[in-house]
Amino acid sequence: MRSFGLVGDAALPRMSRRKFIAGASALVMGFAFDRPARAMVPADAAVGAGAADAIGSGFEGFVPDGFIRISTDGRIVLVVPGSEMGQGIATTEAMLLAEELEVALEQVEVALAPADAKAYDQSILHNQITGGSTSVRAFFTPLRQAGAAARLMLVSAAAERWGVKPAECQASLAVVSHPASGRTLKYADLAIAARDQKLPPEVPLKPLADFKLIGKPLKRIDTPEKVTGAAKFGIDAIVPGMRYAAIAICPTVGGRVRAIDDKAARACTGVVDILQIEDAVAVVGVNYWAARKGLQQLTIDWDYGPHENLSSEELWNGLKTATGKPLVAKVTGDPDTALASGVRIEATYELPYLAHAALEPINTTIHVRPDGCDVWVSTQVPKDARIVTSEIVGLPPEKINIHTHLIGGGFGRRLAVDTIQQAARFGKIANYPLKIIWTREQDIMHDRFRPAYYDKVAATLDPKTGLPSVFYHHTTCSSVLPYFLRAPWPEDKVDSDAVSGSINHPYAIPAGKWEWLRKDSPIALNWWRGVGEGHNVFVVESFIDELALAGGSDPIAYRRALVETNPRAKAVLDKVAEASDWRSPLKVRYGRGVSLHQCFGSFAALVVEVEVDEFGEVALRRLTAAVDCGVPVNPDSIIAQMQGGVLFGLSAALYNGMTFKDGRAQQSNFHDYRQIRMNEVPPFEVFVMPSSESPGGMGEVGTASSTPALTNAIFAATGVRLRSTPVNRSLLAIKGNRNRVPETLAWGLPSKVSEGGIVP
User: For a disulfide at 261, which of 195, 275, 299, 657, Cβ 3.0-4.6 Å?
Assistant: First the structure.
């Protein structure tokens, strides 16, 4: 691969993409082939990353669809629909295209798709969006179909030139050959002729056995440029005439600017302007340092608004005392009868608000003009970015050009468009390109946070087997949907995110009931890596461990009994038990914990091994995971995603929680919103199970796995059951718990602890 490129909206054919993906089950190609592709390219299309057609641009080549450009000089550009934020999706999606196009990754360049009203919408979330671990699931078939269709057209063009049947020809490494005569033609030589070829009525795809790229552990295409520093993230955007903005945001939830005194700020060297919107002020400078120095001289009188006394105590009290009729999300069997008989076990769990804390702070560069608007931004939702910018600056969407960039960590934060809306408000009153950069403190304190959760769970155990006969789960939390959809969410409609990861647990339990009680708060919310599953898998897997203890059983043996009819779940559980040496003895205050789930279309089991010292500090000693994500497109990326997701989740569980006082967030930077450090990462093995099943997602699988495996390991090491995060070290310290015996539950069976590990 020669390079990893970015492509602007103007560089792609507009009309030719509009009907490209119409649904989940089929690739609609008619837009590109009902007439020659060259007739659909606007005459004023500009050259960009080789992704424009010949008319009026100088690019001579084949543009069969929204994803593939082949030029007459041999350049092949694959336009991938996913946002690349370090998860490797640009490589994986390029592999899907290249597999059926019959080219090697080394032969192609890859571009990130621009904002588009329809062309790059995906079939699961029905939007141009990268989130929810859906990219491979949504595009596994459409991208392969796009590659196969383009290959068929190229082969047909060669066959027509040679006067032979297409079935007599072959394609490999961007060359079409006719074995019988020994003739060959490069894709570049066929780029013009292929335009006039019609798509065959059927587009057959390769069987798994014929894959050449899919299933291979290929290295990421963006790595070399990231190593050399050539890769361009949103924060790297440079525009001629650009000015830099340092901003002040009202520190309280719902506050606004009352008045400003900007005399001293305007007198600072390099300050060129001061802009004000409802809840923030921007000091504009010739460089960022000048803007920052000017901001320090700015005096702002804030109106702290209706929530200036808001506190974490108030927020938690609201969750715990929330009343009203819960919405029933799902019922199986007869849960009410089952809950009234047998041995009843109950527990309550709490999870805090969380920030995203991505490495690349929030930034947006915008230039609003009377005839158009350009936005340079790292975003997971390019189309939504275009829509909200259009709404604010008052220009039609087609006049808004979103320049997509590599993202220096998204974790869901870039699914929100609040920061782009803020930039558009500032940009509308500036008459020059404006680059806005948030500080790390602003990025954390003014995040849109993951909700806090309060969960009550209950089960009754069969007195003979100790296995659950019913599972009941009641969740109290806010809904993210009003913020994400930018529209109210009906009070009488379940937010599926509140129960996802619980209603689809992997266990054969005869009866179940899932309820959601909505309790909104003034805190602005957003999806967080792991979404609802990140919260619910913690509750379910912690409680399953508690049931195993009450039933006098080893945690893995207990789970195995519950997944006998779920072969994929059982396989990853058995693999992780074997690979982690689950049954081997451990030192005192060492422990192993396990989690198992089937979320995002994948099955995953994780074993965390920890040591807890006398002061309650938790050290990670070993991590072992097994994952079945269906057809493993790129095992190297799957392993990386599992490792990264687990460590992301463990950072949150060990250290993170956003608290509020006097209407404002109290955590502000990595000194009080700590992350796991490189020297704290233990040996970590990930086993990717072979599979021919449809692909599942991977971006959030590890995050959902992490917290319960950790807290279950801590229990095994100390006998202290943690039902909330971040980890409370004072509860684990020997000094405060010298005489504490390992915890028991309602059934009254003592825990059996041997050198820190639970044994039957």
Answer: 299
Give the pLDDT confidence of 345-380 residue by residue, as tens digits.
999 999 999 999 999 999 999 999 999 999 999 999
**Rounded Cα–Cα distance for residues 539 and 362 (Å):** 32
- Which stretches of 2-64 are DSSP H helices? 30-33
- How does 201-230 read in b/e, with b if 16+ C-beta sit within 10 Å? eebeeeeeeebebbbeebebbbeeeeeeee
Q: How far apart are CA 90 and CA 79, in angstroms?
A: 9
In 3D space, the residue among 73, 79, 63 whose CA is nearest the CA of residue 31 turns out to be 63
Nearest in space to 146 (alpha carbons), one of 205, 233, 227 = 205
Spatial distance between the Cα atoms of 721 and 742, rounded to a whole number of angstroms = 9
Q: Which two tokens stand for residue 552?
A: 């006098």
Report the C-alpha dihedral over residues 116, 119, 120, 122, rounded to 10 degrees.
Answer: 130
Give pLDDT tens digits for 218-263: 999 999 999 999 999 999 999 999 999 999 999 999 999 999 999 9
CA distances to 55, 71, 79, 232, 425 from 49, in Å? 16, 11, 10, 14, 31
Give the alpha-carbon dihedral of 324, 328, 332, 337, to 10 degrees.
20
Which residues, at least 6 apart from 729, have a Cβ–Cβ distance to it below 8 Å?
615, 616, 617, 618
Closest alpha carbon to 144 in 198, 82, 92: 92
Prior bond of 726 cis (ω within 30°): yes
Radius of gyration of the chain (CA): 28
Contact between residue 320 and residue 279 where contact means Cβ atoms under 8 Å apart: no
CB 522 within 8 A of CB 410: no
In the numeric block, the tokens 């956003």 are attached to 658
Mean pLDDT value across residues 165-169: 97
SS3 category, 432: coil
pLDDT higher than 70, residue 39: no
Rounded Cα distance, 394 and 399, in Å: 10
Rounded CA-CA distance 52/41 in Å is: 8
Averaged pLDDT for residues 128-132: 97
pLDDT grade for 760, boundaries at 50, 70 and 90: very low
> Cβ neighbours of residue 358 under 8 Å, at least 6 residues apart?
407, 408, 409, 410, 411, 413, 414, 443
Nearest to 68 by CA among 126, 42, 107: 107
11: helix, strand or coil: helix
